[in-house]
Design a protein that fits this description.
The protein contains 18 helices and six strands. The chain has 433 residues and is mainly alpha-helical. The strands form two sheets. The protein has a three-stranded antiparallel β-sheet. A three-stranded antiparallel β-sheet has the order 4-5-6. A hairpin with a 6-residue loop joins β1 and β2. The longest helix is centred in the middle third of the chain and has 27 residues. The chain is globular. Bound molecules: s-citryldethia Coenzyme A. The site of s-citryldethia Coenzyme A has 20 residues, from α17.
Length: 433
Amino acid sequence: MTKSNAATFTLTNDATGQAIKLPVMDGSMGPSVIDVRKLYAETGHFTFDPGFTSTGSCESGLTFIDGDEGILLHRGYSIEELAEHSDFLEVAHLLLYGELPNKEQKTKFDRDVTYHTMVHEQLINFYRGFRRDAHPMAVMCGVVGALSAFYHDSTDIHDERQRMIASFRLVAKMPTIAAMAYKYSVGQPFNYPRNDLSYAENFLHMMFAVPAEPYKISPTVARAMDRILILHADHEQNASTSTVRLSGSSGANPFACIAAGIASLWGPAHGGANEAVLNMLREIGHKDNINEFIKKAKDKDDPFRLMGFGHRVYKNYDPRAKVMQKSCHEVLAELDLDDPLLDLAMALEKIALEDEYFVERKLFPNVDFYSGIVLKALGLPTSMFTVLFAVARTVGWVAQWKEMIEEPGQKIGRPRQLYTGPQTRPFVPLDKR
Ligand code: SDX
């Protein structure tokens, strides 16, 4: 963290005339921050920012977003270049270690992750406790949270080696756990991971292979899956990442923290939006109905939102949505699929982007708008869309958690509040109420 030589922020209390100077700190890119850490001690006041629209919760070097310019960088590399030239484990190495791996490092990293993809055989018993129609995100919350019961030897967060092992285990085992959740829901046998397959190929194999016949992995589908994983890997201090950081700040083990992140991601305003987009498109059904739904989205009395549109940070466009749209067209063309939902999505996007309400509020398609259509084309059921998001985002969660734990002077997160409840009052005995 660098203190700015250029600026301080002066706060004057109009009632008392008391002035306090707060240092301004500059990062390497993006907005500077006002350091308010001494504000309460010196003024008895808190800052107030529910939803954290103007609050930096931490210092991080992992991901930079410029919402106005539609920029997303991971350790300085643009998401467009990473999606074009990297694979998911290469991006995982970049996020975890800070650099793209050379050939030797990549071979070792890929092997280290690959050799952690199997899960403890007894974990299978957890699945049997769920109803077959349980939402796979409910299964993910339960099974990932239970991992700390199986991997005690990597829960000491102050041991660097254990932190790394836990990181490998989480990144490696998420596709296995996710695919098992799907197989359980359709009553098919689980597939073990295969060490001869890439991360994306292994996930597809575990999801779709059946014992009755060989499963042929389409290179197009595998490449598209790998790209989707890259696009969802990390995204600064979003709701689920902040949940992981806050959970981890108390010293909770990484498996429990990632389970908390999965729970937060499930929300339809966050990672659950990709599933909600497809359900919304199915509900709209036909281009002729679009204007009725746009009207609902604008109606303040109607809780309906246009899923896949809007973003807390991107107020221009989500660079991931552009890559996803391109991938969407490539996959549908390669697989010779003609999905009317894509036509509907394109028509919805065009109409929404011309509507004053959306233009005025800068509500553009986000990463979830097209991902649902691509995932459907790749054969995933809608209920598995957010699960895939969780598989990809585990790399980001783990990297952010590791960065926080390794931060010198790391403290437990403990926000304050503006209290608006009853003032002090005497107890009233039961016979007098
Ligand atoms: C992800 O944070 C991240 O980085 C998240 C993510 C990641 O990678 O981790 O990028 C992944 O979560 C993407 C977002 C997926 N969610 C959706 O697609 C759900 C639909 N979008 C909305 O719920 C909403 O846009 C949010 C939650 C994404 C952002 O909400 P904000 O920033 O809190 O904005 P807001 O709710 O204050 O809305 C501002 C205005 C409001 O109108 P006014 O009160 O000003 O009149 O825009 C309106 C909102 O009503 N608005 C929408 C809308 N989104 C915002 N109106 C209709 N449809 C929408 N989708």
